[in-house]
Amino acid sequence: MQDYIINLSQRDIPNAWYNVVADLPGSLPPPRNPANGEPLDPSALSRIFPQKLIEQEMCMDRWVDIPSEVLETYMLWRPSPLVRAKALEEYLGTPARIYFKNEAVSPAGSHKPNTAVAQAYYNKLAGVERLATETGAGQWGSALSFACSKFGLKCKVYMVRVSYDQKPYRRILMKTWGADIVASPSCDTNAGRAILANDPTCSGSLGIAISEAVEDAATHDHTNYSLGSVLNHVLLHQTVIGLETKKQLALADEKLPDVIIGCAGGGSNLAGLIFPFVPDKRKNEKMRLLGVEPSACPSLTRGPYRYDFGDTACTTPLLAMHTLGHNFMPSPIHAGGLRYHGMAPLVSYLRHIGMLEAKAYQQKEVFDAAVMFARTQGIVPAPETAHAIKAVIDEALRCKQTGKEEVILFNFSGHGHFDMGSYEKYFEGNLTDYDLPQEVLERALAQLPDMPAPAK
Amino acid sequence: MQDYIINLSQRDIPNAWYNVVADLPGSLPPPRNPANGEPLDPSALSRIFPQKLIEQEMCMDRWVDIPSEVLETYMLWRPSPLVRAKALEEYLGTPARIYFKNEAVSPAGSHKPNTAVAQAYYNKLAGVERLATETGAGQWGSALSFACSKFGLKCKVYMVRVSYDQKPYRRILMKTWGADIVASPSCDTNAGRAILANDPTCSGSLGIAISEAVEDAATHDHTNYSLGSVLNHVLLHQTVIGLETKKQLALADEKLPDVIIGCAGGGSNLAGLIFPFVPDKRKNEKMRLLGVEPSACPSLTRGPYRYDFGDTACTTPLLAMHTLGHNFMPSPIHAGGLRYHGMAPLVSYLRHIGMLEAKAYQQKEVFDAAVMFARTQGIVPAPETAHAIKAVIDEALRCKQTGKEEVILFNFSGHGHFDMGSYEKYFEGNLTDYDLPQEVLERALAQLPDMPAPAK
Questions:
Q1: pLDDT one-digit tens code per residue, B83-119
Q2: CB–CB of A375 and B149 under 8 A?
Q3: Which of A430, B107, B138, B324 has the fewest CB atoms within 10 Å, counting from its CB?
Q4: In 3-state terms, what secondary structure has residue A414?
Q5: Correct CATH for B5-12+64-109+233-445 of 3.20.20.80, 3.40.50.2300, 3.40.50.300, 3.40.50.1100
């Protein structure tokens, strides 16, 4: 009997993160200072980030050693299993072989602790006592709460209002790890108060919550900011996912995947899986990398590649990325972790140079896919992860039509145990699909800063 | 670096369940017919169970082959990891080495699918189309819903009212796997209607829910009953837990445990872990087996060993067990899975002959232990599992005092992702400890059937 679950020994946890910057075909456009348009002086980040993370943000080396304290904490759950989705294959009747990297086995239930642990460690090392952050679906807030509990740091989480209301149990999970949580926009920051003054019932967005957490860090002693996605150092930490996966595919005597799929909000789980495969993709044009996003927040499929702010209050440096505009307010879809106006610069760059495909889905078809997965493989996916699953099913059905025995790999970025309220709405028939009319998108894009788009 | 997570290959999933009956020092008292007190004619069970499960209930063979269809489904998540709780050890400063078998990795989040999958399979094989069952905390109902979705059976779950109200997301989880759920006592059965007539706000109990599910099975075509604990065949299916653990301890070059711990409601997760160690216990008197229960429902520590009904409506055969009386109504503690008046006959027998120790805890100290575990090992335990953890911590602290390097093994029977409402009450200071006054217990015991207690 062949193993469907491919486990590694803990000695096989990578001892270095992989930095894709070293293997890009061109140069990543640098972050820029919004005041003068010049490439950002890294020291500008030192008010909210520790030096080590700033170095990683700018790093050009291919490999970055993982500190032993981080490895020791990874060992609470890593390596995560690579799983052959045999039951789903059989249900679909596809000749494709489907594999998923199960990042849901982490204490917080997603891939997010891979970077949360590293960030908590480097901040602790720098003498920081408290971290402030934002969270959308709650996966990132949970991860940082867990990581802070491991390194003895205080943790303040600004949770996007719509998720705060939809997912009360996420809040209590964070509290179980000792964090302090508030709904965003909140009255705890100037950014939050200004938005509430205009719109007291604002359902919030990741962009707003980022503004609040950055302000909190900049205005509190011994407090830094921590971001769960988008930035280079965050994506770097996530590459343990793809590095382990390559070892596991080899262990299963499997060829390199024909298509690699991840959902994409800020881009970190997609990046974590695909970046270690970028050198393979450069050797083999036919290998496909695919990012999946909600139709309601389609930065990769409908957003231009432009310099834009990472947050709503325009406090971050300008980043070259696929963006819907920093004031874009996504509809309240249940995949809260995908409600971000922009996309990680590294992921955006891969898309910009044509190495990354992208696809957008409506949430009802995404929940159809989630329930099919739960009833075949057993595990209940997070709504974010279900976007990837929808694309996987479409690819597997394409293989069924063509008869091709392709290998489809995807990142099972998180479980849906804290998303049952969304499933309830789905079963009650109360889930809404949201269109994004072109004129709404163009209004949001009209507010983009006047900064030349980087050339290809 | 030593591995803290000990994984087996899927080829190491046991291909036979272990039947402890073959290795008991005496004979297990048989179930009896309440009408005449005679040992039960197995055919009396055929109205609600398939023949294969009745055979397993009465089986004397040491090993029972696991069908390949069951193994194939086990492979969705098994073997479960054995984990060295190094972070908890370090936090406690104990010389003990603590291991836990992580059964929370199953799709339903607990050990329960081990038997749910087997039961669904044998019922499907017998041409049954629908299963009825009860659930306390919701773990068993989730497991059977999942198993029925895998084998194409309909599933009706009678969920104890107090859990139904406390854990709305458990219901939706079951619905995700396609089950039909109702709060018990319900209006769907005579048993439920009779109880509601007396007490319209009755918070329910496992005993009542069992009565309803048994009646449902007996009065519907092509419908069988399925029980999540207590019976011999259920405990048999759970022995994959201990069998895998023995292989994993050997792989870690670890000695046999000094003490093996599990929480005990009906007794199935405790049994699954400890039964395969019973032959070792018989060779080595010093090895300790420990069942942990809530002070509010202390069948092992305060209930006599007597013949009693398995349910409240007195519809089951009489079982020899530690019991608080079939009419005992436990206080509404948050460990809903431990709110059962009796205890599995096999577990009760081990207790009766002195092979099993037992300990009871109040729920506040149990949640203290749960939060300590979450903040060290990361994983958030179910309230039931937290009972075992409280005992583990006490044993580890005893080792700290004595300086003994003992090996402590426990069953991490389930995660707490659907118990966040209980954690919220704990953090708010709204968790109540419940005493069980001796006179209340004696009133419940006065209703025990007049059946001689089996001799030792």
A1: 999 999 999 999 999 999 999 999 999 999 999 999 9
A2: yes
A3: A430
A4: strand
A5: 3.40.50.1100
